[in-house]
Write a structure and sequence with these properties.
120 residues; alpha+beta; Nuclear Transport Factor 2, Chain: A; 2 helices; 4 strands; 31% strand
C-alpha cells in the first residue's frame, strides 16, 4: 500500500465531529508498517485571527483502549452526575443541528415572499 506516502501515517478510517463554529474533532485509525493499528484524536480549532488552525493530538494505542474509555466515561459521568447534574447536555446538540440546518441550504436564497407587492 505504498503510494508515495509513508505508510506509517496511512489512515484506514476517519470520523469527523464538529463541535461548534471553531472546533472540530477527528478520530483517525492509522496503520503502521507492521500492520498494527492505533488511534489519533485531534482537536482542530480555528484561530481567532482567521490565520489557520491550531491542532492538538493524542495517540492512543490498542492496549490502552479499554482503560482510556473507562477513564473518559468515569470523568464525563462525574461531571454530569456530581458537578452539573441539572445542566442540559442536549442543548448544544440542538443548537448545532439548528445551525447545520440553517447553513446547509446549498447557498440558496428564497425569494418567495408572502407579500409580492414590492414598492420602491
Amino acid at each position: 500500500m505504498d503510494n508515495g506516502r509513508n505508510s506509517k501515517f496511512e489512515s484506514v478510517y476517519s470520523k469527523k465531529v464538529r463541535a461548534g463554529k471553531r472546533r472540530t474533532y477527528f478520530f483517525d485509525v492509522r496503520q503502521t508498517k507492521g500492520d498494527d493499528f492505533y488511534l489519533t484524536l485531534t482537536e482542530s480549532t480555528k484561530k481567532f485571527n482567521g490565520d489557520g488552525y491550531e491542532r492538538h493530538k493524542i495517540f492512543l494505542y490498542k492496549e490502552d483502549f479499554n482503560r482510556f474509555i473507562e477513564g473518559l466515561e468515569e470523568a464525563i459521568n462525574h461531571v454530569k452526575t456530581q458537578l452539573l447534574p441539572d445542566y442540559d447536555y442536549d442543548e448544544f446538540t440542538r443548537r448545532h443541528d439548528e445551525y447545520e440546518e440553517e447553513n446547509n441550504d446549498g447557498g440558496r436564497v428564497d425569494f418567495n415572499t408572502e407579500d409580492d407587492d414590492i414598492s420602491w
